[in-house]
Write a structure and sequence with these properties.
With 177 residues, the protein is mostly helical. It has a domain of 78 residues: Orthogonal Bundle (UraD-like). The protein has 10 helices and no strands. Helix 5 packs across helix 10. It is globular and about 50 Å long. It starts with a helix and ends in a 12-residue tail after the last helix.
Length: 177
């Protein structure tokens, strides 16, 4: 669909179609619906980012808590959202060795205990080794740095999910109204 089609969506359809661009947080797109019309894809993405940036710390942490553990219980039980399932598969999280599964579980638990939310990384931009390296390194960060880093990763994920839904022309700008 192009940006004009996005702008023409009713509130319910807008939330239904775009509701998981931020993992399990349809409230984010629900809140930006009233900012239509979006002139470009970038305007839509910016509206979402601005909404997230304006949230208090508790709201940002809430967004991070909506994300599943990488290679965690939801992947093994098949309860990931389709988007997360595709993203984790693209990064090889569904084909880990037993040793890597144990390492991921240990690092995920350490990270979650330290920060109170799951490790979030844009899996499509990394491979298994890069994800494991980042998870290990980021466990040593401070809480404020990890909230900020996690939110930046959420925005990367959001952009890629939006690109999958909204047609963007070859110059990188969205189709204009």
């Amino acid at each position: 669909m192009d940006i004009a089609s996005v702008n023409a969506l009713s509130y319910e359809d807008f939330v239904d179609v775009l509701g998981n661009v931020v993992e399990r947080c349809p409230i984010v797109v629900a809140a930006v619906w009233s900012r239509r019309p979006f002139v470009t894809f970038d305007d839509l993405e910016a509206a979402i980012s601005e909404f997230i940036d304006a949230l208090p710390l508790s709201g940002k942490e809430g967004i991070l808590r909506c994300h599943p553990d990488l290679a965690g219980r939801d992947l093994r039980s098949g309860t990931l959202t389709q988007e997360s399932s595709d993203e984790q598969a693209a990064a090889g999280m569904n084909a880990l060795s037993p040793g890597d599964v144990d390492l991921m579980a240990r690092l995920n638990a350490e990270y979650k205990q330290r920060f109170g939310f799951p490790f979030v990384v844009c899996a499509r931009m990394h491979d298994k080794a890069g994800i494991l390296r980042q998870l290990s390194e980021r466990c040593r960060n401070g809480r404020a740095a990890e909230v900020a880093r996690g939110i930046e990763e959420v925005k990367k994920i959001c952009r890629l999910r939006l690109e999958a839904l909204v047609r963007v022309n070859v110059q990188g700008d969205a189709a204009k109204l």
